[in-house]
Write a structure and sequence with these properties.
Elements lengths: L2 E4 L3 E8 L7 E12 L5 E6 L2 E8 L19 E11 L5 E8 L7 E13 L8 E3 L16 E3 L7 E3 L4 E4 L7 E4 L3 E3 L4 E3 L4 E4 L7 E4 L3 E4 L2 E4 L8 E3 L4 E3 L17 E2 L2 E6 L5 E3 L5
Antiparallel strand pairs: 1-2, 2-7, 3-6, 3-8, 4-5, 4-7, 6-9, 10-11, 12-13, 14-15, 16-17, 18-19, 20-21, 22-23, 23-24
Length: 282
């Protein structure tokens, strides 16, 4: 849970992490937006009340050709991807993101999303950099594009991330900032989901969060889209198939229309012989 504090020109977001695994390094990745009336405002990133760095200071004129989304005169610069690492010890962390503004917060601000923290027992360095369309101030642009990492010194050499990684600081599946589609973070690195899952919580077929084209999500599993027939409802927004009754109430159902799946007494089959939990008519 984030706590948010505002004043006339500044705001900060604070989160406390407890019971952390043993570590000596925190590697981080996060995305920022610059919104509405901003110009030469900047962000600070704070670990345990120690200011780590003034992350970036942007100048609006560099971005005036980008789209205006939120209604202010300035363009919105979205998904400024920040990478980096910081030494850290202890079993708790207070992460604070501080927005330093030259106008009131209802005129312009920064947003942040997709914060990823990796707690590591190795001192492997992840250089601080940003992937944005033009040069920012006080933080260098990443020398390699997203999906690759730089191990060259002093000459830049861009190496592809492991196939399981969408962004990374090294070449193994344990060096990921974020996982590619069809993979999940297993606590150490990015591992493969079940073959039908495009996003998942784990490797099993009933741990899907989203499905590849041609399949829909039903009670954690990816099933052929044609299996979602009346009285089940297709929800296009979430690419899922929903029962007309609560999943926990499988005692109400129409036995004449949908017979048992043999030999499972608590399931029923539709006309495609796809086994569902018992459902109720509404």
């Amino acid at each position: 849970m984030w706590s948010t504090i505002y004043d006339q020109k500044n705001e900060y977001f604070e989160r406390t992490y407890l019971n952390l695994p043993q570590h000596i390094t925190i590697r981080f990745a996060m995305k920022f937006w610059a919104m509405d009336s901003w110009e030469q405002d900047y962000i600070q990133l704070n670990f345990d009340n120690i200011n780590f760095i003034d992350l970036f200071d942007l100048y609006w004129k560099d971005y005036e050709l980008l789209p205006n989304i939120c209604g202010g005169k300035e363009a919105e610069v979205k998904d400024i991807l920040i990478f980096g690492s910081v030494p850290h010890f202890g079993n708790s962390l207070i992460l604070k993101i501080i927005s330093k503004l030259n106008a009131k917060t209802n005129d312009g601000s920064f947003g942040v999303r997709e914060i990823k923290l990796i707690f590591s027992t190795t001192p492997k360095f992840a250089p601080l950099c940003a992937i944005i369309p033009v040069q920012s101030y006080k933080i260098p642009n990443c020398r390699c594009p997203k999906g690759s990492y730089d191990l060259g010194f002093p000459k830049t050499t861009c190496n592809e991330c492991h196939p399981n990684c969408a962004s990374c600081f090294g070449g193994s599946d344990a060096d990921c900032y974020e996982c590619n589609e069809g993979n999940y973070f297993d606590g150490t690195g990015c591992a493969n989901c079940h073959s039908l899952c495009s996003r998942c919580l784990g490797p099993n077929s009933n741990q899907c969060l989203d499905c590849f084209a041609g399949f829909i999500l039903f009670e954690g599993e990816c099933v052929p889209s044609e299996c979602c027939i009346f009285p089940f409802t297709m929800v296009n927004c979430s690419n899922s198939c929903l029962s007309p009754c609560d999943y926990s109430d499988k005692t109400l159902w129409d036995e004449n229309c949908y017979p048992h799946c043999q030999p499972e007494p608590d399931t029923v089959s539709d006309s495609k012989d796809f086994c569902h939990g018992k459902f109720c008519f509404v």
